[in-house]
Design a protein that fits this description.
This protein has 4 helices and 15 strands. By secondary structure, it is α+β, with helices and mostly antiparallel strands. The strands form 4 sheets. A 5-stranded antiparallel β-sheet has the order 8-7-9-14-15. Strands 1, 2, 4 and 5 form a 4-stranded antiparallel β-sheet that branches. A 3-stranded antiparallel β-sheet has the order 3-12-11, with no helix packed on it. The longest helix has 24 residues. The radius of gyration is 17 Å and the shape is globular. It starts with 6 loop residues before the first helix and ends in a 6-residue tail after the last strand.
């Protein structure tokens, strides 16, 4: 069952999303060669707690961090560690969630560390474009497949692999709610209704679609070792169109 969010729930989700956006704003400032993913996790934790929220990811099914920090060929669910430091030319995806008064904001962004090569620039640009193409379709009366197809079209145009085992999801009182949202067409004709809240999150690869899970049972990487990018916003369908909750509130 897909839960429709009330006006009050949307208000709280916007506040949770604002906190997530504050974390990403800080990530953009501090990510540079030599910083460890544990340092990034500590910074995120501090911001979330200062804003009277709870780190959604921390302890989720045993996950040990407040953020997922995934570098280069790592797609998602990278575990923050003091011995893992980014270097010039890397790209790093930071996924973060904050729970405020029982409602969740969830967003991921990929960042360049210093100067990156043209392939990684092209990958990041296309993945971000695919996110916004999907968001544009998050409209009352459209279908889930309209969102999935919009993401797929951008990926296919650039010749990028599409991660198929992971995708977007409903979000609200829990980080993962119905429905699951694929990043490619599957024929899902579920109609989007007012108040549906979905974390739209394309993950595109420079190479193949296939991924593998590390021995830590969390970190997901591309099977061919080529770079991956990940962008995500929490979006609610409203009468006025798609409402992105995971951005700084004016």
């Amino acid at each position: 069952m897909i839960n429709r969010k009330s006006r009050e729930e949307i208000k709280l989700m916007r506040h949770a999303g604002h906190i997530v956006a504050l974390v990403h704003q800080k990530m953009k400032e501090v990510i540079e060669p030599g910083i460890s993913t544990k340092e990034l996790d500590d910074i995120a934790h501090k911001i979330i707690k200062e804003n009277r929220a709870i780190p959604t990811f921390l302890g989720y099914n045993g996950f040990p961090g407040c953020i997922c920090a995934s570098i280069n060929e790592q797609v998602v669910h990278g575990i923050p560690h003091e011995n893992v430091k980014v270097k010039e030319g890397d790209i790093i995806a930071i996924d973060v969630g904050a729970t405020y008064r029982g409602l969740v904001g969830d967003s991921a962004w990929s960042y360049a560390v210093g100067e990156i090569d043209e392939d990684k620039k092209r990958l990041m640009k296309a993945t971000e474009e695919s996110l916004y193409a999907g968001i544009e379709q998050m409209r009352i009366g459209n279908t889930l497949d309209d969102i999935s197809g919009a993401v797929e079209d951008v990926a296919n145009k650039g010749g990028f692999g599409i991660v198929r085992q992971y995708g977007g999801h409903g979000v609200g009182h829990n980080m993962h709610e119905e429905p699951f949202l694929f990043n490619y067409r599957v024929g899902d004709r579920t109609v989007i209704k007012q108040g549906y809240a979905i974390a739209i999150e394309p993950m595109l690869n420079l190479g193949c679609d296939e991924v593998v899970v590390a021995d830590d049972e969390w970190t997901v990487s591309t099977a061919d070792g080529k770079a991956s990018a990940h962008f995500e916003h929490t979006v609610i369908a409203t009468e006025d169109g798609p409402l992105i909750t995971t951005k700084i509130m004016e």
